[in-house]
Structure formats: structure tokens, C-alpha cells
Design goal:
heterodimer; A: about 260 residues; alpha/beta; Rossmann fold; 2 domains; 10 strands; B: about 325 residues; mainly alpha; 14 helices; globular
């Protein structure tokens, strides 16, 4: 696995907001099919890094390479078209639409039907079939016709991830997928995250160390906007520096 | 339980009341033959309102300058009839083409900036055009463009004094464009518009090119507003600078909100309610009718449309 090709690479990424350096010279390689976790205390710059990778923020310095091509100057929607998709730490959903409509429009856009104005949404059989698959996989079939803003939080969280998968990502960036999910609904979500296709490369930001250690085969620790260390889960769990950072912040590094 | 195909189909299926409504509308110039003039006006305003709802209710662009395209369509149609040929349909196509072109040009200005920037830019464009119409010789200046003589519709139906031909013409154009737009908002393209209205950040994150989609819908809406303006000039044989006026854009926003945004029938409903209220109240109190319209708007906004149209909920108290 460690020798497989690099699909996403951040090279010397720097982001300054005025005098504050949110990201300082970050190098990160995501390998094909990786389950890579990005951890670090609050304020370490994890979400900033995701925003840089996806194009929401423009880096002050550095390059981002996706499947061998420099995408540093591409707009967010262009990066999505090239197979890099994210989820959000705080749900970003289409509140007045139903999960079915949301997925149908996402799948349509993904399959290049997004500019068709003359045919009804759901005309294409492939689109509907893919929607049904996703609804089933994310346990959303029962609520597919309810407005998104009335769904339970756990369902909204599942939809958040289902939307990302509807974009057929080759690189998936998950920003704290189980954040704020009640314990009862957490299990459902963990299973779906674990069941992601093996050829999708995943970068996971997560505070829940149980999830991180059960999921990741590679870890990067971010502290104050820079990479503290990188390695496999065992190395990271036993790294005295990492322990110091987490214990210093009152968090426990539990081995799952 | 219904399956996904069925559910998606249901969202865009024609409801039973829709053809009934349109048949009544088409028959109305005869059923209410003494009111054909106001029916014509309502149809035109409804078309204009549907056009605003397309950008406001479906794409989330707030515009207080939509009259720019209405006025452009009106002047284009009037000038075409005067200078080129008096055929209404050809003139209408010309009016739509001109205002669509203007919309495409203006769409470059709405791509940048925040909602407030867009609001101001849309207002500015309408003001510029109003002064141009005021200043230029070809548009007749402050007196308006007079001496517009329309030919018969399809070469056969003369515009009569009672406005019956005009009303039927306007309703038919409204229906045709409404059907096309109804198709558009229920299509994948319409879906992506609703997506960027609801959450622009997420729309970008699923690969929707937000600015170019906004430009497309703005351009289409401009063309539809131009059609409404064209109908206005053709059925009144007149175009004047007040077609560009800020009041017209503001009233339009008002009636789209009264009728309900994000629902094409909202524009139609708003036009009917607003025009009838205006007609009714101004016959009782000609000078102070805007007071009552204002009061109506405040009450509607504070109480909510849902409750206003359901009197049975007025005295029910709060639900626990």
C-alpha cells in the first residue's frame, strides 16, 4: 500500500491571514486507496488545510497536485469535476429540497446533465438508480421525500456524506463526519464511513480517536498549522511528542 | 411506499387544477369582457413577476432593477413596430432578443460581489437606461414613444378597443413562456439553481459552476421580462420612460413576495392579488391606496402567508 501512487499532494502550502499563519509549509501526500487521518488539537489548522485543498481558500504559497496535475489555480467546482470532493464539519445542505431531490440534482450534475433544462429531473434511469442506491446505503430511503430541514440531525449528517459520494469522488475529504452526532446514530454513520469503496482515497479529519484508530492506516498530526509528525497508527499512538500535545490539551489518545 | 422514480415524477406532474386555471384564464377575456383591459395588464405583470421569481425565488438573486429589461423590451417592440414592421409576433421576438442580449451583458455585473453589490448594480442599470430613454431622440424623450401602430395578430386579428385581442394575446404568451419555465425549474438545471439558492458553498462543492449558472438564469429572466415589456408596448401602443422606473421594480418585488417566491404560480397569484387590490382600493380611496397595500404587506409578512390564506387558523391559539 505504501508504494502505491500518490493521488493528492500538498507541497509547501502556506496560508497567512494578515499576520497570522494558519498553515505553515505543510507537505502532505495522500496515496491511492489510503485511509489517511489528519488529527491535531483544536485550532491546529485542519479545516483551513481542507479549505486550501478544495479551493475555498487560496494559498499564500505552495502547490496542490491532484493525480499529477497542478490544481492550485482551479476553482472549487473544477476540482470537484476532477474527482476531489469534500464533506463539511457543519452540515451544508439544501434545506428546502428533499434528500431525493438533493441527490438527484447532484448525480445529474456529476453525470454531465446539469445544464439540461428541457427534461425533468429524474428522467434518466441511471440517475434514479444511483439515487436509490445511495438512499439505501445511507439509510435515507424512508425520509427521501421529507424536506431536508426537518430531518433528524443524524439523517442530515448521513445526507451530508451521501451528497459527497454522489459526486463519485476519487479523493474524499471528510471533515469530522461524526461531529455532533448523537451516540445512537453514531454507529450507523461509522459503518457507512467504514464501507466506503476501497479505491477511494480518503483524508479524514476527526476528533473521535476511536474512529480514527479503527479507520486510518496512515496518520498526520497537525499542530499550530504545521505537520508535527506522520506515520502509521501504532507509531503515532506511541509517539511521545504526540502524547505531549494531546495530554497538554487534556485529551486522551485512546488506542481503538 | 412510493419509489424514487415515482416521487421525482410527482414533483413535476401537472396537477388537475393547472389546466383548469389556464382554460379559465384563456376564456376570461370573453367571460369578463368588460374587464379585458385589466386582464391584459394582469397577464403582462404576471409574466414580468414570473421572470423575477425565476432569479429571486429559484436562484436567490435579489434585484431592484428588473424594470430595466421590461423597459428595454417595451422600447424594442415599440421601435420595431414603428421603424421596421408592425407585425406583433415578429416584434415580440425582437423585443425578447434585445432584452436577452442586455441581460447577458448585465449578467457579467452580477457575477461579482455580495448580494448588496448585486442589488445596487441592478438598480443602477435601470437608472442608466431610464435616462438614456429620456435623453435620446429616437425614444421620444420624456414624452414617450408615440405613434406606435400595431398590425393585426397573425395578420388576421386586429387589436380592438376593448382589449380582448390584447388580453388573449398576452395570456397566450404568458402560458407559452410559463410552460417553458415550468419545464426549466423542474429539470436538472432547475435543480442546480435551487441548490445554489439554498447553499452556494455546497453548490460549489458538488461541482456546480455557480457564477456561470447565475449568469444563464439572469439572462433567461431578462428575456422573459423583455417579453412582458414588449407585450405592454404592443397592447398599449406606447412606451414611456416610467417603464424603467424604480417603482415598477419595487412593486414587482412586492407582488412576487405577496404571491410567494420559489413557486412560478406565486408570480401569477401575486399579480392577480396586487392588481385587483390596487384596482379595488384605489376606487374607494384614490389618493391613499398605497397605505392599504403597505398595511396588507406588513400583516402578510408578520403573520405569514400560510396563516393569512387559512382563516381557520386565526383564532386557534398556539399549538403545543
Amino acid at each position: 500500500m505504501s508504494n502505491s501512487e500518490i493521488v493528492l499532494s500538498a507541497q509547501g502550502l502556506v496560508k497567512r491571514f494578515g499576520g497570522i499563519t494558519a498553515t505553515g509549509n505543510v507537505n502532505l501526500d495522500l496515496r491511492k486507496g489510503a485511509r489517511h487521518a489528519l488529527i491535531g488539537p483544536n485550532g491546529a489548522g485542519k479545516t483551513t488545510l481542507i479549505n486550501l485543498l478544495t479551493g475555498v481558500l487560496e494559498p499564500t504559497e505552495g502547490r496542490i497536485v491532484l493525480e499529477g496535475q497542478d490544481i492550485t489555480d482551479l476553482a472549487p467546482h473544477q476540482r470537484v469535476r476532477r474527482g476531489m470532493v469534500r464533506t463539511f464539519q457543519i452540515n451544508q445542505l439544501f434545506d428546502t429540497l428533499t434528500p431525493l431531490e438533493t441527490l438527484a440534482l447532484t448525480v445529474s450534475q456529476q453525470s454531465g446533465l446539469g445544464t439540461r433544462w428541457w427534461q425533468p429531473l429524474g428522467q434518466s434511469k441511471q440517475v434514479v438508480e444511483r439515487c436509490e442506491q445511495l438512499l439505501e446505503q445511507f439509510h435515507l430511503t424512508e425520509v427521501m421525500n421529507q424536506k431536508t430541514n426537518v430531518l433528524a440531525y443524524g439523517k442530515r449528517r448521513l445526507l451530508e456524506i451521501a451528497i459527497a459520494l454522489a459526486c463519485e469522488p476519487r479523493v474524499l475529504l471528510l471533515d469530522e463526519p461524526v461531529a455532533g452526532v448523537p451516540a445512537g446514530e453514531r454507529e450507523e454513520l461509522l459503518q457507512t464511513v467504514a464501507a466506503l469503496p476501497a479505491d477511494v482515497s480518503v483524508l479524514l479529519i476527526e476528533h473521535d480517536m476511536d474512529l480514527v484508530f479503527s479507520f486510518a492506516n496512515r496518520m498526520t498530526v497537525l499542530v499550530n498549522g504545521t505537520v508535527l509528525t506522520e506515520g502509521d497508527p501504532d507509531t503515532i499512538a506511541n509517539d511521545p511528542q504526540v502524547k505531549a500535545v494531546y495530554l497538554g490539551h487534556g485529551e486522551e489518545l485512546a488506542h481503538g | 411506499m412510493r419509489n424514487a422514480t415515482q416521487s421525482l415524477h410527482d414533483l413535476q406532474r401537472w396537477k388537475l387544477w393547472e389546466p383548469v386555471l389556464w382554460l379559465l384564464a384563456l376564456a376570461s377575456p370573453w367571460l369578463l369582457s368588460t374587464h379585458a383591459l385589466i386582464i391584459n395588464e394582469i397577464a403582462i405583470v404576471a409574466l414580468f413577476a414570473v421572470s423575477l421569481d425565476l432569479i429571486l425565488g429559484y436562484a436567490g438573486i435579489v434585484s431592484l432593477g428588473h424594470a430595466a429589461f421590461f423597459g428595454m423590451g417595451a422600447y424594442a417592440a415599440a421601435l420595431f413596430a414603428k421603424l421596421v414592421m408592425p407585425d406583433p409576433l415578429v416584434g415580440l421576438v425582437f423585443a425578447v432578443a434585445v432584452s436577452t442580449a442586455l441581460g447577458a451583458l448585465c449578467s457579467l455585473t452580477i457575477m461579482r460581489g455580495t448580494d448588496l453589490t448585486r442589488l445596487m448594480v441592478t438598480m443602477g442599470v435601470a437608472m442608466i437606461l431610464m435616462e438614456l430613454a429620456n435623453k435620446l431622440d429616437i425614444t421620444g424623450g420624456a414624452d414617450g414613444l408615440q405613434g406606435v401602430i400595431m398590425g393585426p395578430l397573425l395578420g388576421r386579428f386586429e387589436f380592438d378597443l376593448y382589449g380582448r385581442t390584447a388580453a388573449l394575446y398576452s395570456i397566450t404568451v404568458l402560458l407559452v413562456l410559463f410552460v417553458l419555465l415550468r419545464r426549466l425549474v423542474n429539470s436538472p438545471l432547475g435543480g442546480t439553481l435551487k441548490a445554489l439558492r439554498d447553499n452556494r458553498l455546497r453548490a460549489m462543492a458538488i461541482g456546480i459552476p455557480v457564477t456561470s449558472r447565475l449568469a444563464v438564469v439572469y439572462t433567461i429572466a431578462a428575456g422573459v421580462a423583455g417579453a412582458a415589456g414588449g407585450l405592454m408596448a404592443q397592447t398599449t401602443s406606447f412606451a414611456s420612460v416610467d417603464l424603467f422606473a424604480f417603482d415598477r421594480s419595487a412593486d414587482l418585488m412586492l407582488l412576487v413576495v405577496i404571491g410567494g417566491t420559489g413557486w412560478l404560480y406565486g408570480g401569477v397569484a401575486g399579480a392577480i392579488v396586487f392588481k385587483l387590490l390596487q384596482d379595488w382600493i384605489s376606487s374607494i380611496t384614490p389618493q391613499y391606496w398605497t397605505f392599504w397595500i403597505g398595511l396588507f404587506l406588513v400583516v402578510l409578512m408578520l403573520i405569514g402567508r400560510e396563516r393569512v390564506i387559512r382563516p381557520q387558523t386565526w383564532f386557534g391559539g398556539k399549538k403545543k
